[in-house]
């Protein structure tokens, strides 16, 4: 279904535990260094080698990646990449054990919020030399994308893409009910006016999901739009129970209470309803762009998220290349792995066809990417996109946020109480993780 497989989030806690043996002192031990990689991957002129590449791209993005790997292999006979794809939960079970046994892959891809935990447990190693050799710099990327690849002052990730939230809207149903299908709402007033029009025609126009996919992401986007943040500036405590957080969650809950959304929306029911004409506006991930393009009965458009608050705010994440720790230094394989990373990121417009925004600004602004239908609004929103902070074990704390959002959207707790209770649970997790992984 999506590059961000929800099973990764549900099972990630189990996946990280097996890696603890890699770093007996958590994140406090000295991080291992990557083997020397020649020219950092700018080119490869060594003997024929096979590079093992692991990722969790089980959906259409996996097919796109395999096509790109095949093209790379055909163009570079001395570097043959063998790609292994796992469910994300299985990926994080297998990777630490494989690294520990000396049978880990040469290169892998993971999300921004996975890298700090894997770095703290010494499953992956710094690759500052790759970024330096290839001349990559912060100005090449949106700040959140570039900074998201760092952990404790070292670079662990080479950015591949951005995948963020956007507004999907059913043009067919809008037009049928007297709304302009070419003018999706961009502000709170426009959004509510459209919902009132639809409600008057018997259509519940903005279904609110109580689940992380994608109600939890909607809440985070609204939190930033109202001027709040998920964590404190030093990431030591949850900050989502601020006034901004209460405003954001209250707005979502009021959509349910006031009949703009059904109660008790099931997992993915909001998205399914969009596709069958029962829902009109869906805060959904870029990964569904190719899916809605196949519809015959309804035409679905995409637009930047409406600004319900006073500023832009969009949930997002990023795939980045990482280098797993190796027990031995095969200089040829090391340089070949970096060469593959360089090649893949330079072909980001091809990768974008799997419904992604290229991480590099130049490629996101290039003609090849702009020719891909349905993605431009997501690229426009990259400037407002926020990513999970670079803190080991951060997903454990975020899970409590999503539980709190769910409780409020299901009308089991009022927004302030739900967020405060979730913050209390998260703060304990953050303190425990600091001891577990090191400062």
Structural class: alpha+beta
CATH topology of the largest domain: D-Maltodextrin-Binding Protein, domain 2
CA-based shape: globular
CATH-defined superfamily of the largest domain: Periplasmic binding protein-like II
Helix content: 40-55%
Strand content: 5-15%
Structure commentary:
The strands form three sheets. Strands 1, 2, 3, 4, 7 and 12 form a six-stranded mixed beta sheet that branches. Strands 8, 9, 10, 11, 13 and 14 form a six-stranded mixed beta sheet that branches. This protein has helices at residues 6-17, 60-75, 88-101, 115-120, 128-133, 143-148, 171-176, 188-200, 212-225, 243-257, 269-275, 289-292, 331-346, 348-351, 361-364, 367-370, 376-380, 394-409, 415-437; strands at residues 49-55, 79-85, 107-111, 124-125, 150-151, 154-155, 158-159, 161-170, 281-285, 300-303, 314-317, 319-324, 357-358, 385-386. The model is unreliable at 6-31 (pLDDT under 50). By secondary structure, it is α+β, with helices and mostly antiparallel strands. It folds into two domains: 6-160 and 318-346, 3-Layer(aba) Sandwich (D-Maltodextrin-Binding Protein, domain 2), CATH 3.40.190; 164-316 and 393-437, Periplasmic binding protein-like II (D-Maltodextrin-Binding Protein, domain 2), CATH 3.40.190. It starts with 5 loop residues before the first helix and ends with a helix.
Summary of the model, kept short:
The protein has 439 residues and is of the alpha+beta class. The chain has helices at residues 6-17, 60-75, 88-101, 115-120, 128-133, 143-148, 171-176, 188-200, 212-225, 243-257, 269-275, 289-292, 331-346, 348-351, 361-364, 367-370, 376-380, 394-409, 415-437, and strands at residues 49-55, 79-85, 107-111, 124-125, 150-151, 154-155, 158-159, 161-170, 281-285, 300-303, 314-317, 319-324, 357-358, 385-386.
């Amino acid at each position: 279904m999506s590059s961000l497989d929800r099973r990764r989030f549900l099972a990630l806690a189990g996946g990280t535990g097996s890696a603890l043996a890699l770093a007996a002192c958590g994140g406090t031990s000295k991080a291992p260094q990557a083997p020397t990689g020649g020219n950092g991957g700018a080119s490869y002129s060594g003997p024929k080698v096979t590079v093992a590449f692991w990722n969790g791209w089980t959906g259409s993005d996996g097919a796109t990646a395999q096509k790109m790997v095949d093209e790379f292999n055909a163009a570079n006979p001395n570097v043959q990449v063998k790609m292994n794809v796992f469910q994300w939960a299985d990926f994080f079970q297998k990777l630490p054990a494989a690294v520990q046994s000396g049978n880990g892959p040469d290169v892998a891809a993971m999300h921004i919020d996975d890298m700090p935990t894997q770095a703290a447990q010494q499953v992956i190693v710094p690759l500052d030399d790759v970024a330096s050799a290839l001349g990559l710099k912060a100005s090449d990327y949106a700040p959140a994308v570039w900074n998201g690849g760092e952990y404790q002052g070292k670079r662990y990730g080479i950015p591949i893409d951005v995948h963020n939230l956007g507004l999907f809207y059913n043009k067919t149903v809008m037009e049928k009910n007297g709304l302009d299908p070419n003018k999706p709402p961009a502000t709170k007033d426009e959004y509510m006016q459209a919902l009132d029009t639809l409600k008057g025609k018997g259509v519940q126009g903005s279904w609110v999901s109580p689940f992380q996919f994608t109600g939890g992401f909607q809440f985070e986007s609204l939190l930033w739009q109202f001027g709040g943040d998920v964590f404190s500036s030093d990431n030591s405590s949850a900050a989502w129970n601020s006034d901004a957080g209460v405003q954001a969650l209250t707005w979502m809950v009021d959509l349910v209470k006031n009949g703009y959304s059904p109660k008790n929306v099931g997992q993915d029911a909001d998205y399914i309803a969009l596709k069958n004409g029962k829902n009109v506006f869906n805060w959904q991930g870029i990964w569904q762009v190719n899916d809605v393009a196949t519809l015959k009965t309804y035409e679905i458009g995409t637009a930047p998220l409406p600004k319900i608050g006073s500023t832009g705010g969009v949930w997002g994440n990023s795939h980045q290349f990482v280098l797993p720790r190796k027990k031995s230094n095969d200089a040829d394989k090391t340089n070949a792995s970096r060469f593959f990373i360089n090649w893949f990121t330079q072909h980001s417009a091809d990768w974008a066809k799997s419904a992604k925004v290229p991480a590099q600004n130049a490629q996101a602004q290039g003609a090849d990417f702009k020719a891909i239908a349905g993605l431009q609004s997501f690229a426009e929103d990259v400037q407002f996109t926020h990513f999970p902070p670079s803190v080991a074990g951060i997903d454990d704390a975020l899970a409590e946020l999503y539980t709190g959002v769910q409780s409020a959207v299901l009308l089991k707790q009022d927004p302030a109480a739900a967020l405060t209770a979730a913050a209390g649970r998260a703060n304990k997790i953050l303190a425990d993780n600091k001891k577990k992984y090191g400062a």
